[in-house]
């Protein structure tokens, strides 16, 4: 890797970070589906992000039936299984940004309202509260100069580290890639192109953080073993 003057620059090491999410109330709550449709258009995009992805770092005491909070509320609060199924079919990784994801959600809800004979209501104690998250980042001090050094450590990374580097990275980086892929792209040549492609093709939405950690580890291990042959 060289700078503008042609001098050789050392590739920056992969710096392992950890994180936690602090949940913040937006002050917006709704009791029926029409209110929900209106609120969806105005809530901060961070709230959309939280209700799709924040569950990964929350302590859960049972296995959720649906993969996002909106679908769960449609089922448990509104007792509308049809709507819950349609909302659960909205996959956030299918959209290039959160605004596109929001618009799809609005369309699904408004279409359901048009097709319904009545507006579904929730009981007073089952209102939907729109929340958002603030991410708190910690530097673990761990640094790795080469993928061969990192591969043996991936299974030891905390779920907070996996969330930060594989989930949050896709929302904060211009390329919408995980941090592992962005780091590998910084190496000269095409040595790690296949590894990067395999990481970028992995859809994390239907997996737990532990499953994502295992899958990332396996992708690294298979690639490096292949290179040794």
What's the story with the biggest beta sheet? 2 strands, antiparallel
Q: Total number of β-strand segments?
A: 2
Low-confidence stretches: 1-10
Name the average pLDDT: 91
Biggest sheet strand order reads 1-2
Q: Beta-strand level of the residues, as a percent range?
A: 5-15%
Structural class: alpha+beta
Distance between the termini: 27 Å
Shape, principal axes of CA atoms: elongated
Helix content: 40-55%
Q: Treating each run of at least 4 consecutive H or I residues as one helix, how many helices? A: 10
Q: What's the Cα radius of gyration?
A: 21 Å
What's the order of the H and E elements? EHHHHHEHHHHH
Q: How many structural domains in the coordinates? A: 2
Task: Provide an overview of this structure.
The protein is of the alpha+beta class and 229 residues long. The protein has two domains: 21-132, no CATH class; 146-228, no CATH class. It has ten helices and two strands. The protein has a two-stranded antiparallel ribbon with strand order 1-2. Helix 7 (159-172) packs across helix 10. The longest helix has 20 residues, at 209-228. The radius of gyration is 21 Å and the shape is elongated.
Q: Can I get a quick summary?
A:
The protein is an alpha+beta fold. The chain has ten helices and two strands, in the order βαααααβααααα.
Architecture blueprint of SSEs:
Layout (H helix, E strand, L loop, with lengths): L13 E17 L2 H8 L4 H9 L15 H8 L4 H8 L9 H18 L12 E17 L2 H4 L8 H14 L6 H6 L8 H8 L8 H20 L1
Antiparallel strand pairs: 1-2
Helix pairs in contact: 1-5, 2-5, 3-4, 7-10, 9-10
